[in-house]
DNA sequence: AAACCATTTACATTTATATTGACATTTAAT
DNA sequence: ATTAAATGTCAATATAAATGTAAATGGTTT
């Protein structure tokens, strides 16, 4: 939804529309200023507001070309919104919703994260630091019961602890490798690890401090 | 269960819902006051009650942004989506609004990223790797003309090159420090660097392969 | 009595508007 | 090419309007 215009902005807007319609080109700042009986810089300032509010679009630095934007507004936004749950803990295969979050859900861009039944997991610790996954990040995950070599996955170890690691398939087991030299890779038997999903993205917020 | 509203509070609540739906933004106190035919302070007071009872949520001290909350205490999903532009290039000191050479737009969670006029910047290179910011990530930025010590900022160097670095204020200049040992910090004079914004979040997608 | 509703008044902050003057760029004339 | 005029930009500044907040006060409802 476009922001509404103030009275003054509407006046300038109307004037612009009329001028463009009559002459095919926008008037110069000083011409407009004279007709509107204000200073040229004031006109320039109002044009800035109009551009901010997406009513007009100007091109180039010193050109007078100016487009009047119709209200075509990107309404496709509604289709692009996707709401996924934020999982707190994963225990015994049953994901538990994290209620301490914002209602336990996260809005994200469907265009960026294709797939269905995605979920988000809040990262604890910095074991995947070198993969650009930090403590408190939200990992966007796609549910999966299997994994391919070198993928970053959400794994449940011993039906208890959920962790995010890089997955390696060994001849006789599974290696879950952190991406941080302070942590050591762990090797498990096939029956010790349950793959829960694959990490397909990261969302980090709250970098206020 | 939420506390029930009084008749008056319900009236104001209904009015707010309708206004937010129509205009996408809450009316000013005095506008609301005029339409409800009470004083502006009365509206403010009722808003406080509504916020206490978790029916609405307001942001900032002097901002008009207001969210309608659902029964569960969540922000209504419709209000939680926020669409921000993805800035493609930052060129020659042009102010932000002029650079909207559509790299597209991004939907994100308004609850996670408060603030107005946010924009996104696609990261090139891995100079901020150790801060968990990787190549091709989308940096969520808040427009800012200044920066505080140690903040991660978007800076324009010599009116040409836009970079994301950690900001340090020195006695006689500015240090822009990468977070990657392969890169070296750079020191600039005050007039060589233009702060364009502050990085408040990261969105990473496409970790398919 | 306590919670709620409402008013008036004063105040701080933000946003919009406007001015002036200097400057850089473009355009047109020479 | 040079010059002059027109034009857009920018900075500093100022003012007005809109807006949210707070305090003091009193009425109404429960």
Task: Explain what the structure shows.
The structure is a homodimer of 209-residue chains. Chain A folds into two domains: 7-68, Arc Repressor Mutant, subunit A; 77-203, Umud Fragment, subunit A, CATH 2.10.109.10. The first copy, chain A, is 20% helix and 34% strand. Chain A is built from four helices and twelve strands, in the order αααββαββββββββββ. In chain A, strands 3, 4, 5, 6, 7, 8, 9, 10, 11 and 12 form a ten-stranded mixed beta sheet that branches. In chain A, strands 1-2 form a two-stranded antiparallel ribbon. The first copy, chain A, starts with 6 loop residues before the first helix and ends in a 5-residue tail after the last strand. Chain A binds chain B through residues 1, 3-4, 48, 51-52, 58, 61, 74, 77, 80-81, 83, 102-103, 105-113, 129-130, 132-134, 137, 140, 152, 199-208, and chain B through 23-25, 70, 72-75, 77, 80-81, 83, 94, 97-98, 105-113, 129-130, 132-134, 137, 140, 152, 199-208. The first copy, chain A, binds a DNA duplex (30 and 30 nucleotides) through residues 6, 8-9, 28-31, 38-42, 44-46, 49, 61-64.
In short, what is this structure?
Chain A has 209 residues and is of the alpha+beta class. Chain A is built from four helices and twelve strands, in the order αααββαββββββββββ. In chain A, the strands form two sheets. In chain A, strands 3, 4, 5, 6, 7, 8, 9, 10, 11 and 12 form a ten-stranded mixed sheet that branches.
How much beta of chain A, percentage-wise? 25-35%
Biggest beta sheet attributes of chain A: 10 strands, mixed
Structural class of chain A: alpha+beta
> What name goes with the CATH superfamily of the largest domain in chain A?
Umud Fragment, subunit A
The H/E string of chain A reads: HHHEEHEEEEEEEEEE
CATH C-level category of the largest domain in chain A = Mainly Beta
Helicity level of chain A: 10-25%
Oligomeric organization of the protein chains: homodimer
| Tally of discrete structural domains of chain A | 2
Mean pLDDT, all residues of chain A: 84
Rounded to the nearest angstrom, the distance between the terminal CA atoms of chain A is 32 Å
